[in-house]
Amino acid sequence: MHWVFDTIQGIPRALVEDVYARNKAGATVHLVQEYLQLDMESRSGMKRIHENYPEIMADMSRLYMENEENDYIVNEVIGLIGNMCLDAVLRNKIYRDGWLPRILALDRPRIGHHSPLPALQTFLMHPSPEIFEDLCTNVIPRLSRLLLDSSLRFEVR
User: Fold this and answer.
1) pLDDT beyond 60 at 155
2) Looking at the record's lineage, which domain of life comes first (predicted)?
3) Which of 30, 35, 44, 33 is nearest to 14 (CA)?
4) How far is Cα 41 from Cα 49, in angstroms, rounded to an integer?
């Protein structure tokens, strides 16, 4: 795919237009991954993520922050972060960089393919007393309140 680097808030216009054009669940799965040039299925791809972690996470953070109102891009970033958490070393770095609150930002229902719960599941895959304590004292009570709040209506699929 050829990207035209005519940008919207630093993001190629083609990426944003593709995301909006495919605005249904599952249709944008690889667009953000292609934009960030991430390969999470091969050893060499994971090695590249480890080697270039600060740059990759800066791009992900920029995509997330500049598109907080675009559920599709935010959900894809969350999905990619969740996939990266399958690697314990990356998961620890992602946690230390403060991504857990972003991943679990359920302050409003989001539409799209990814839910924050699979990303939470990958956070829990590898034992970490620090992460478990944070989840138990900060995240789970907040998540429970939000899920039980009758003013939030999540689409059930």
Assistant:
1) no
2) Eukaryota
3) 35
4) 11
